[in-house]
């Protein structure tokens, strides 16, 4: 359910900017991910004095395009990788900056599926949904995992408000807040529950077994674009980091890298932020009228919030309790596109092996020379086998699993590889925000609310958690909030 007025207002702000202020403020923005960059550019254009503090040496946050150690001209999306057609604010910025994009081929009929020791093309599985032998109930036979999941999830779709605060649960969402994804599938308050065999089929074939204990409403909301059958995806041709880099061009005098915030002190008169330079170890102080916190709550836990009573106990609980789902990717450069000889042009391979998802490049299809495959993409508990391995062992295990489908060509064609483990990023401390059962009523109402002179933004405060759209949406929302003070 889209909030048309709210969306139209946000689109207008991207195109025309915020109303010019008559009372310029000094605004400290903590974090240079999409949310921080969007809010900073809008507030600067409105006439405020902004200063952006970024702990790392780059912009983008969880939009992270890796170009090393790969061949020149190649890149690997270690973070956000795809843009649904339904993410309207993202498309406004793409059009505003005239960024090049191409289709992200999320899946194809010729995708390989390797499950329960059996191998089949996607088209064959969709024509024969019982091929992989899951012990589903009689009335569930002949249905793909996607169809089974949609049968229980679709009644929820109208209850998802979009372009409104994540912290306003609908009546349906309040009622279902008690359910984890697993218990929701097992009990289905809307009708026939799924059988244990069907749940296993959904978990494996939809790749959701790594987060079955998380809040059902939140998981389904986050992955709705993937569940919906008619949504197409795109990517920025030169790397998804082109958007944060474009925003940074407007903030070169205001943005400071390698400045890690150690404390935020707020009183009735001002906000004082203490930062540590990660290169020199030197501490300094920045004072302003208002602060915008644009870092994940997982990282905010390491920041002292002072004095204690300047931040409500509800906000402190939200910061402490909000979970961040880990994500891990391994990008592998091969000397040639050997998979295209096997009929794989974009799309992905799905397996019940630890590698789970393998994505083939959608760019430069048919072009000779090297290319990068996302050899494994895992979320939640599925990251555990990978995060404990050395770089060398990650690659060793990954090639072993890829060879089960592609054969020994993966060893012959290997050029180089690199991984990114988001739970090990010291300034992110996880990947995408996700609620636990009962968090929708217990902590969600306090995630986005301001505390005195301190405001909060980020995908975790938005109605599009886990997506770039959420960063943009929340950045616009908080800029409007601050400008209207």
Automatic annotation (TrEMBL):
Binding locations of FAD: 54-55, 79-82, 261, 459
One Pfam match: Amino_oxidase
SUPFAM superfamilies, alphabetized: FAD-linked reductases, C-terminal domain, FAD/NAD(P)-binding domain
Gene Ontology annotations of biological process type: amino acid catabolic process
PANTHER family: AMINE OXIDASE (PTHR10742:SF342), FLAVIN MONOAMINE OXIDASE (PTHR10742)
UniProt entry keywords in alphabetical sequence: Oxidoreductase
Translocase recorded as keyword: no
Cofactor: FAD
Molecular functions per Gene Ontology: L-amino-acid oxidase activity
Protein name: Amine oxidase
Gene3D superfamilies for the chain: 3.90.660.10, FAD/NAD(P)-binding domain, Guanine Nucleotide Dissociation Inhibitor, domain 1
Domain Amine oxidase: 34-482
Residues at which substrate binds: 82
Organism: Anaerobacillus arseniciselenatis
């Amino acid at each position: 359910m889209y909030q048309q007025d709210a969306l139209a207002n946000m689109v207008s702000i991207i195109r025309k900017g915020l109303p010019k202020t008559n009372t310029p403020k000094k605004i400290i923005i903590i974090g240079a991910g999409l949310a921080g960059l969007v809010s900073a550019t809008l507030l600067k254009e409105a006439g405020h004095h902004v200063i952006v503090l970024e702990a790392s040496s780059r912009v983008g946050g969880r939009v992270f395009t890796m170009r090393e150690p790969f061949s020149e001209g190649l890149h690997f999306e270690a973070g956000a990788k795809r843009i649904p057609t339904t993410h309207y604010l993202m498309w406004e910025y793409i059009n505003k900056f005239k960024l090049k994009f191409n289709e992200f081929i999320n899946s194809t009929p010729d995708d390989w599926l390797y499950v329960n020791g059996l191998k089949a093309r996607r088209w064959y599985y969709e024509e024969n949904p019982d091929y992989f032998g899951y012990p589903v109930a009689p009335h569930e036979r002949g249905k793909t995992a996607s169809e089974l999941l949609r049968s229980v999830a679709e009644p929820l779709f109208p209850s998802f408000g979009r372009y409104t605060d994540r912290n306003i649960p609908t009546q349906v969402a309040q009622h279902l807040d008690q359910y984890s994804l697993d218990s929701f599938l097992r009990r289905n308050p809307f009708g026939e529950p799924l059988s244990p065999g069907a749940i296993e089929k959904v978990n494996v074939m939809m790749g959701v077994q790594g987060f079955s204990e998380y809040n059902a409403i939140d998981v389904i909301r986050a992955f709705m674009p993937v569940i919906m059958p008619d949504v197409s995806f795109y990517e920025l041709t030169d790397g998804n980091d082109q958007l944060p880099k474009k925003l940074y061009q407007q903030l070169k005098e205001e943005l400071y890298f390698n400045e890690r915030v150690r404390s935020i002190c707020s009183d009735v008169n001002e906000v004082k932020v203490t930062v540590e330079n990660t290169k020199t170890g030197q501490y300094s102080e920045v004072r302003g009228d208002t602060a915008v916190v644009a870092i994940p709550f997982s990282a905010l836990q390491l920041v002292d919030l002072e004095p204690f009573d300047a931040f409500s106990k509800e906000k402190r609980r939200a910061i402490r309790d909000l979970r961040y789902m880990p994500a891990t990717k391994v990008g592998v450069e091969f000397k040639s596109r050997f998979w295209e000889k096997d009929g794989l042009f974009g799309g992905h391979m799905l397996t019940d092996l630890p590698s789970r998802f393998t994505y083939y490049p959608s760019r430069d299809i048919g072009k000779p020379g090297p290319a990068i495959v996302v050899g494994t993409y895992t979320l939640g508990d599925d990251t555990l086998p990978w995060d404990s391995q050395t770089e060398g062992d990650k690659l060793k295990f990954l090639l072993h699993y890829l060879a089960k489908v592609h054969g020994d060509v993966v060893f012959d064609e290997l050029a180089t590889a690199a991984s990114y483990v988001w739970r090990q990023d010291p300034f992110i401390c996880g990947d995408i925000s996700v609620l636990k059962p009962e968090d929708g009523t217990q902590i969600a109402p306090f995630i986005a609310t301001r505390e005195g002179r301190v405001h909060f933004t980020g995908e975790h405060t938005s109605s599009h958690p886990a997506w770039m759209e959420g960063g943009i949406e929340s950045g616009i929302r908080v800029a409007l909030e601050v400008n209207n003070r």
